[in-house]
Amino acid sequence: MARVRSPNYPQIELQDAVGLVRKIFDNEGQNFAPREVVAELLGYTSVNGASEKKVSAITAYGLLERNSHRELRVSDLAMRVLHPENDQEEAEALSEAAHTPNLFQEINEKWPDKPPSDANLRSYLIRRGFNQNSVDQVIKVYRSAMSLASVEVEGHDSLDDAGDGPVKQADPAQISGGKAMQPQHTHTPSKPIVFDMETISGQYSFDNADDLANFIEKLERIKPLLPAKKVDDDDLN
Fold first, then answer.
1. 235: pLDDT confidence band, cut at 50, 70 and 90?
2. Strand residues in the chain grouped as ranges (E)
């Protein structure tokens, strides 16, 4: 029986593609390099099916580009992801990369208002010609890209709209002997969520439960994208 090959799609998740293109940039900058060199930078001894799948996926996200000699280099879009001028540029670049693969564009155009359920998307992909054994992986990669794009843009753009104004911070001296004193006001602006694939950082201040709940919801969406905690040998003793 002939094997059914799925249509082209990025076979690795966006965050993994960013990590791989970072390795290429650290060694070659934006120089064009032969496929053999790129394969070696990705950890392969030669150009083979596995290396080509990685290169194809990175290219599908717009993070690598080819010249007429089929040489590869880190794209300008990748540079905006790896070395942005500010958090907003990084957020927009990641969102652009997430929406670059042709299949993802096709899905988003078919369902512009709301992403389809897994069952609906699975049925569509099978009719589209995807191998049933690969459909779940396609859905996973797609969901991951859309989630990362959404988290990054929302995190950098709109933790709350009060960031440009004064932030109220409680003075430790205002609670003394059970007596509440007038709060101190500072003019230190709050910083939006900064998520760089490995850490979450920023300066945050809340004066109502709704904003805090919104902040916690964003953190919950980022949580699956963080790496697992590294365990030191001392921790095992």
1. low
2. 64-66, 72-74, 167-168, 175-176, 179-180, 185-186, 194-195, 200-201
Q: Which residues contact 235 (CB under 8 A, 6 or more apart)?
A: none
Last-in-domain residue among 108, 124, 157: 157
Q: 43, 27 in Cβ contact below 8 A?
A: no
Consecutive H or E run containing 139: helix 135-157
Structure tokens at 35: 């496929």
Mean pLDDT calculated for residue range 20-33:
98
Is the separation of the CB atoms in 42 and 20 below 8 Å?
Answer: yes
Amino acid at 103: L
Give the count of alpha carbons within 13 A of 194, CB side only: 10
Q: What's the total number of domains in the chain?
A: 2
Instruction: Tell me the residue range of the domain where 63 lies.
Output: 14-157
pLDDT at 180: 41
Say if residue 23 is in the same domain as residue 80.
Answer: yes
Share of the chain above pLDDT 70, in %: 66
Q: Which tens digit of pLDDT belongs to each residue from 167-199? A: 334 343 433 344 444 444 333 333 345 555 555
Cβ neighbours, 10 Å, residue 141: 22
In the prediction, which pLDDT does 175 show? 32
